[in-house]
Amino acid sequence: MKKIRNAIIDIGTNTFNLLVFEGDMHILHAEELPVFLGRGGIEKGIIADDAMERGKNVLRMLVSKAGSLRANHISVFGTSALRNAKNGAELVNFAQQELGIMISVISGNEEAELILAGVRQAVAFTRKPMLIMDIGGGSIEFILATDKALMWKRSFELGVTRLRDRIPVSDPITLSEEERIAQHLDDQLDPLYAIIERHEPHVLIGSAGSFDSLASIISSERHEPLLNDAKTMNFSAMEFDALRDKLMRMTRTERLNVPGLPEHRVDTLPYALIAIDRVLTAGAIRELAWSKYALKEGAASRMISTV
């Protein structure tokens, strides 16, 4: 019997992601392309003209790629930049009229649920609560879960592109700028800190995005290359702290030369590092895990379970 082949496209604020799979999550192709859909407009509630053109071009490219891989069906999900943009309908209409596909613009809560479904495919949960953190360009999703249940979820409009627009920094970033960003995060994350205090998660799981880069950098530091089929990796808060201290003191040019750090995350990495540090500090969490799987794999697993 011929297996159904499906594709998922995740339209993120910084990157667009494609996943092509068949059967019970047999992944045939996965790729991530920088688009910067939120650049120049995210804090104004629009998608800037040049960003809209990049979005259309990359979406066309990914739909074509899915077609060349003989995907029977393409599901497309739009997240923070698209759900908050006054002109987001332009990209949605383009996809429908020009490419023949529908974009589902999902809420922050649904985004969090899909992320959890993806992370569960990569990381073994325990009876004790674990906290997931997914850092996007427009939003950061937090999910508290055990091996049996989803306990709490929330999306905060604190993605690294938003933070960069709100609090521009020097090169290299200064300690006072770090403190401003940390204070801004603390002001917004009170609901999360209350949950952390109540449930005391023992592990912070970082999914995709900035955590992909962290996993690659740490693997390079350990002289243990990250294998293509690796779905997860554990590291300590001590390892993170040491790496954070080193990266935060670097200039942009120096970060460009860091093994494992792609160019499209060079400018936003300091914001991600500060956000991770605030969460670890709030909960005195000393263990971290990286999940390769996130929203698109969660959407795929949901699709499989409904067949």
Write a brief caption for the model:
With 307 residues, the chain is α/β, with parallel strands linked by helices.
Key terms:
307 residues, five-stranded mixed sheet, alpha/beta, single chain
Can you describe what's shown?
With 307 residues, the chain is an alpha/beta fold. It contains twelve helices and eleven strands. The chain has helices at residues 49-68, 80-84, 88-98, 108-119, 160-166, 175-188, 190-199, 209-222, 237-248, 252-256, 269-283, 295-305, and strands spanning 5-11, 15-22, 26-34, 73-78, 103-105, 130-135, 140-145, 150-156, 203-207, 232-236, 287-291. Helix 9 packs antiparallel against helix 11 (269-283). It starts with a strand and ends with a helix.
**Rg of Cα set:** 19 Å
Q: Give the termini separation.
A: 15 Å
Mass-distribution shape: globular
The percent range for helix content is 40-55%
Low-pLDDT stretches are none
The count of β-strands is 11
- Main β-sheet: number of strands, strand sense, barrel status? 6 strands, mixed
Number of helices: 12
* Residue-averaged pLDDT: 96
- The share of residues in extended strands comes to 15-25%
What is the chains' assembly state?
Answer: single chain
Helix and strand run? EEEHEHHEHEEEHHHEHEHHHEH
- Spatial strand arrangement across the major sheet: 8-7-6-9-11-10
Structural class: alpha/beta
